Amino acid sequence: MSDKKIIFFDIDGTLLDDDKKMPLTAEKAVFALKEQGHEVAIATGRAPFMFKEIREQLEIDSYVSFNGQYVVLRGEVVATNPLNREALQAMTDLALTHNHAIVYMDHANMKANIPNDELVEKSVQTFKAKLSVGYDPLYFQGRDIYQTLLMCTVEEEPFYEAVFKAFDFVRWHPSSVDVVPHAGSKAMGIREITSRLGIADENQYAFGDGLNDVEMLTAVHNSVAMGNGCDEAKAAAKMVTKRADEDGILYGLQKLGLL
């Protein structure tokens, strides 16, 4: 086992604040960690094409994306876990009867099954990035889809959960839930990377803030929830730092003794 440390960072609400801005202290902290010889990686619910600029800005080429379903180590894809195609077809058929739009996402693109859907536009706008959702109702056929966005309310969500046991539903927006393979999580993706690098449990660190970070914050030995994080994330983490917009990344790394 190596003595090298690895630090995983979530993006939204962690590296980026509520305005989708990255504090300068967070950027500098990432480079300081790398200068010390540590591995730095991203663990996010986003698709790879949704954080390419952030990877380039921070010079990071290892990441867990789609909440663990598409894992890249030093630029090489090392693990994938696509959605079950039959179950996805069935969910598509059911969602259409309720006029619930679905956005299908693979590693390179995202397409909606309903054109110009208002809820799709509204939820994707929260990323405050130049993201366009094309229209292709058959995009999921014949290709690996790692995650979908399902447009439904909190009240409607349990209906889908009861029917589709092959999937997990993780809410990230009032109008939208992430749909991922059952038991697929950032924690699983992190294990793929740490096992390949031979990094001991006690040298693994993770920062996160959301519901989709709970498994990661529970599993990783040294886990940190952001001050702006949800209650579930804070309960799962070993430590709580300041808010993202209050230099929470730097503060947390200092408290851990990494910087």
Automatic annotation (TrEMBL):
Superkingdom to which the source organism belongs: Bacteria
Alphabetized InterPro entries for the sequence: Cof, HAD-like_sf, HAD-SF_hydro_IIB, HAD_sf
GO CC terms: cytosol
Molecular function GO labels: magnesium ion binding; phosphatase activity
Name used for this protein in its record: Phosphatase
Source organism of the structure: Paenibacillus terrae
